[in-house]
Write a structure and sequence with these properties.
There is one protein chain. With about 375 residues, the protein is of the alpha/beta class. The protein has two domains: about 250 residues, Aldolase class I (TIM Barrel); about 90 residues, no CATH class. It is built from 15 helices and nine strands. A seven-stranded parallel sheet has the order 1-2-3-4-5-6-7. A two-stranded parallel sheet has the order 8-9. Helix 14 crosses helix 15. The longest helix has 18 residues. The relative contact order is 0.07.
Length: about 375
């Protein structure tokens, strides 16, 4: 995985701000001097934006000390996301005991709050942790003044039903502590392919803030896809904002990390709004001929392309009909004569795939 240069990170932050993304993880202070230089530069850039900075730190005072120094230089806050593993399997591997874990949580959060840093306490692998361990860790975080608590599906092991159950349990725990003002976050991975579904389940169950990454890029199989999360939140009516800039965000992120975008990737892949099947294409074309782009973007699509700065694409292949060819040629300024249509269809019916633009135009020549 590529760590993009600073100028590309700054561009991504600006694109995220335009999309209404609330906050961005801008680095891990404990990763070294380069990471801290980037964090400081990005946080300074964000002083004039609506999006706010956060950083990931272990529940160690030494990890948080550099953040205090950076905030003193900036004069504006950086949210600390202090994390610790919470599953029995992790504690066993690390030879941790609960008393020591709780002590680290208390010391680190107390230090952060004494220095007036906003703080989210994160239990890694929450979905595989025992309730009594979570009660001890979250209870210590609440006692020391944590502003937010984050539930994590660190290895993507949860299902939507399990996520809802966990959030319900957490809401009940907060109520029992009389701390309903503490806000809840969700952080999910997609090892089982359920990252997006689990994040939507967490939000529907009462989580206020959800974490996601551009194109889902992250460790192993990655995280919830920020772009697809925003698409779904808009289609569900949970947010109302201009998302026509999502395409630029996706393409910039893809280039920055050097990951090619799969053609079949939902919404933003090259094939997402392409159809070569005659029946489907004919319906889309009829809608366009009614001079109704709104209808054309919905008649054979569950995602309206125009809401996200995209458009329908009519192609020609072995399952195409006459209307595909007529539309394809007209859009390229070529008169769709009967001879040309017949020649293109003859070429298409002998192909085992969609024809390229060059192949269609050559057949029509």
């Amino acid at each position: 995985m590529v760590d993009p240069p600073l100028d590309e990170k700054i561009l991504l932050v600006h694109l995220m701000d335009r999309l209404g993304i609330n906050t961005a993880d801008i680095g891990l202070p404990g990763a070294g001097s380069t990471a801290r230089e980037h964090i400081l530069a990005l946080a300074r850039e964000m002083q004039n934006l609506s999006i706010t900075p956060n950083v990931a730190c272990r529940t160690l005072v030494g990890d948080i000390e550099p953040v205090v120094e950076m905030v003193q230089k900036l004069g504006t806050p950086i949210e600390v996301c202090a994390f610790i593993g919470s599953s029995p399997i992790r504690a066993y591997v690390e030879d941790w005991d609960l008393e020591k874990m709780v002590g680290n949580v208390r010391d680190s959060i107390r230090f952060a709050k004494e220095n007036e840093l906003p703080l989210m306490f994160v239990t890694e692998d929450t979905t595989r942790a025992k309730p009594e361990m979570l009660e001890a860790l979250y209870g210590a975080a609440i006692d020391e003044g944590a502003d937010r608590l984050c539930l994590c599906d660190t290895v993507g092991s949860a299902t939507p039903e399990g996520v809802r159950n966990l959030v319900d349990w957490m809401v009940g725990f907060l109520e029992s502590r009389g701390t309903e003002s503490v806000r809840l976050d969700w952080h999910g991975h997609r090892d089982r392919g359920l990252g997006l579904a689990n994040t939507l389940a967490a939000l529907s169950a009462g989580v206020e803030r959800a974490h996601a990454c551009a194109l889902g890029i992250g460790e192993r199989a990655g995280n919830t896809e920020m772009d697809l999360l925003l698409v779904n939140l808009k289609l569900l009516g949970w947010i109302d904002r201009d998302l026509t800039g999502l395409k630029d965000y996706v393409e910039t992120a893809q280039a920055a990390v050097g990951r090619p975008l799969r053609s079949e990737y939902p919404v933003f892949g090259e094939d997402a709004f392409e159809t070569g099947t005659g029946i489907h294409a004919a319906a889309v074309i009829k809608a366009f001929r009614k001079d109704d782009p709104w209808l054309a973007n919905r008649v054979y699509s569950g995602v309206p392309a125009d809401d996200f700065g995209l458009e329908q694409k009519i192609s020609v292949g072995p399952m195409s009909g006459r209307s595909n060819v007529v539309w394809f040629l007209e859009k390229r300024g070529v008169e769709p004569t009967d001879e040309r249509i017949a020649a293109v269809l003859e070429r298409a019916k002998t192909s085992d795939r969609l024809l390229t633009e060059e192949e269609v135009l050559r057949a029509a020549d």
